[in-house]
Amino acid sequence: MKQLTVISGKGGTGKTTITAAFASLARNAVLADCDVDAADLHLILNPKIRETMEFKGLKIARKDSDKCISCGKCLEHCRFNAIDGNFNIKDTGCEGCGVCEYVCPAKAITLVDRISGHAYLSETRFGPMAHAALKTAEEASGMLVSLVRENAKRLAREQNRDTVIIDGPPGIGCPVISAIAGVDLVLVVSEPTVSGVHDAERVLGVAKHFRIPAMMLVNKADLNPQMAEKLERYCLDSGVKLAGRLPYDNVTTEAMIAGKTVIEYSDGAFSAELREVWAKVLVSLQA
């Protein structure tokens, strides 16, 4: 089983569009959306949910009103403003640190598991898909990413799928590390802007730190040819393979509005170039 993660140093570079296109080109793959904080691959692939599971991340404090003596110790020591003047715990503010439980003389507060989101096993027109959604203001997204990846690998084993294609989160934080740990290849989708170049360098540094082979795809390359060349020079100097250049094309937006991948929507020049990119990625993935 080979695992490919599509990532970007910043949001908006087009990685979900690329991932969806790869899904329509792959022949025997499991799909995984690991951008759990802002999942959107489902908007294109329209998965049919077959199984839902609760994700329990951080703990949350719960008060037993019958035991509470209104001493105010919890309010005094809480540093997250999660307790109001009546000594009630505000769920959206509680970080599950446990200080209120520790200082409560009446043992009226305990920490319990909180449901921080849900993970899903679904079916799409291109094969099985593992994905998830984190609730608003929840943390521990790295843990949820790990759960999605484990679900994807389980689907691959059960259905004899030979590839897992992962739509990763942007940035360089814990969710990204969880999305790329142990994969066979990462494809960094970047754009030719100052921030795009800077963030691509950072995320490639993360991949290098974890010794994961990486490729670069320059998207919207014709918007700033000089910056696109700078990205390519950086790849050359760093020993990073270039998967290709893609031009800016309104067909990507048109395809999303139609609820289709670019490959499904159009057989034009943009799709032809995407097919070439996928062919290069496959070669590196199988190396």
Q: Would you give an account of this structure?
A:
With 287 residues, the protein is an alpha/beta fold. The protein is 38% helix and 26% strand. The chain has two domains: 217 residues, P-loop containing nucleotide triphosphate hydrolases (Rossmann fold, 3-Layer(aba) Sandwich), CATH 3.40.50.300; 43 residues, Alpha-Beta Plaits (2-Layer Sandwich). Helix 7 links the parallel strand 7 and strand 8. It is elongated and about 70 Å long.
| N-to-C series of helices and strands | EHEHEHHEEHEHEHEHEHHH
- The Rg value, from CA coordinates, equals 22 Å
Strand content: 25-35%
CATH domain topology of the largest domain: Rossmann fold
Strand order, largest beta sheet: 3-4-5-2-6-1-7-8-9
Assign a percent range to the helix content.
Answer: 25-40%
| Average of per-residue pLDDT values | 93
What class, by secondary structure content? alpha/beta
Name a few traits of the molecule:
alpha/beta, Rossmann fold, Alpha-Beta Plaits, 2 domains, nine-stranded mixed β-sheet, 38% helix
